[in-house]
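Table S4 entry, dTDP-glucose 4,6-dehydratase.
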Amino acid sequence: MARKKVLVTGGAGFIGGNFVQYMVNKYPDYDIYNLDLLTYAGDLTKHKEIEKKDNYHFVKADIADRDAITALFEKEQFDYVTHFAAESHVDRSITDPEIFVVTNVLGTQVLLDASKAIGVTKFVHVSTDEVYGELDFDPTTFFTEDTPLQPNSPYSASKASSDMLVRAYHETFGLPINITRCSNNYGPYHFPEKLIPLTISRVLNDQKIPVYGDGKNIRDWLHVLDHCAAIDLVLHEGANGEVYNVGGHNERTNLEVVKTIISTLGKSEELIEFVTDRLGHDKRYAIDPTKLEALGWKPTYTFESGIAQTIQWYLDNKEWWEQIISGEYQNYFEKQYTL
């Protein structure tokens, strides 16, 4: 029997990178292809442990480059596509929305066309709960798969647009798809510009920690390894054409998250510095994952166990995040892959 070929776009990023490692290690009989352009958030050093494995393959390419993507799909004839690649930092989308449209919308269309042309078995589009907009602080309200899309930032608008394209290719062309929408992820290899790794690195260096507004914005935190297991399940068992929300049942205010990290590391809350709130800052996100749980998924991490594991990981892997902050990681591709 021919080996299954799985394309993971954005496999040098945070969630995609963890998924690449998860798949390479769990499915030695699958060939896992990591496709990434290696923009500022693309880091290959995280894959040192798997890059010599026979079932791991790296391809440097832009998902919006139609010629390159078409040629790659025609050559490899992928069975599955799991699409993580995206510009994802909200602040950057406010400063420069155009790159978010090019990568997240046009890039997704290029992948859909290539997938349709070769007849992939499944296209899983990894999206975000941010496409639903925001919830108020009523703890009884949650996002479901039927919640209308009301994105509030250029980032979430670009993701909502790509979601609609994926749905349209299913409805119009019969492309087998699933869409997953996750809450905020955290865990190993999280790029240091994001709240949790930024806070950890700054606390360890006794630097001020910026907190937007009053810090009362609420997010539902999902450990990245729980997210990987969810996508694996949807890839293999998800009903064709369906959307699945992935949430961690772990709502916390941003201020609570920061204070938990400070307390765990034994530092002072005087490091907290409240700063001007982000434009269009959504109040609250909260996911109802009942539909996915009916498929057989449950998160294994509570926030308490997950944040403890994550903090310990950053303590144990200081060399990794220090070379991310310094920018040294950007030289890894040239050293390892072009010599």
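The two ends are 35 Å apart (CA to CA).
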